[in-house]
Amino acid sequence: HYVKFYWGTEEILMPVYTTNAEAVKKHPKVTVFINFASFRSVYETSMEAMTHPSIKTVAIIAEGVPEQQTRELVQVAEERGVGMIGPATVGGIKPGCLRIGNTGGMLDNIVMSRLYRPGSVAYVSKSGGMSNELNNIVCRNSDGVFEGVAIGGDRYPGSRFLD
Question: Which of 1, 33, 38, 75 has CA 20 to 30 A from 68's CA?
């Protein structure tokens, strides 16, 4: 089946698959895995995603992933050369190019914050709410956001500010 998403200011239909293997088989060039699963199942689905060699980035939206599971996810990601955003992230954005997760909010906020075209300011945040507020502040006081990422607010994030 398909789900409606926004690409810039346009609506598009994206296919939804029931397994990671099915998705990777249909889209062998896929490199980013965005995991919207709950904290109860995010560990298994993220570990499965990292078994596919084409996956280079995993974004984990769920909050409250158990610390031991997060540590194991981080270790496996580092061993396999996979970048990890989250857990507890709204994702990241590169205006005019890509949006991972829920960064920027709904279409009206994306348009108001001019997140459909690149600016010159970049940011890294631990807070999803703060990253959305940064989008608003930056658009009102500069030419806009070049790129931004919320690395996640849980105790053991998969990314650090330096990453």
Answer: 33
pTM: 0.81
DSSP count for the chain of H helices, then E strands: 5, 9
Contacts of 31-37 with C-beta under 8 Å, sequence gap 24+, read: 31/55, 31/56, 31/57, 32/56, 32/57, 32/58, 32/59, 32/100, 33/57, 33/58, 33/59, 34/59, 34/61, 34/91, 34/100, 34/101, 35/59, 35/60, 35/61, 35/62, 35/86, 36/61, 36/62, 37/62
b/e sequence 7-19, b meaning 16+ C-beta within 10 Å = ebeeeeeeeeeee
pLDDT tens per residue across span 36-82: 999 999 999 999 999 999 999 999 999 999 999 999 999 999 999 99
To which H or E segment does residue 26 belong?
helix 20-26
DSSP string for 88-131: S--EEEETTTEEEETTT-SHHHHHHTTTTS--SEEEEES-HHHH
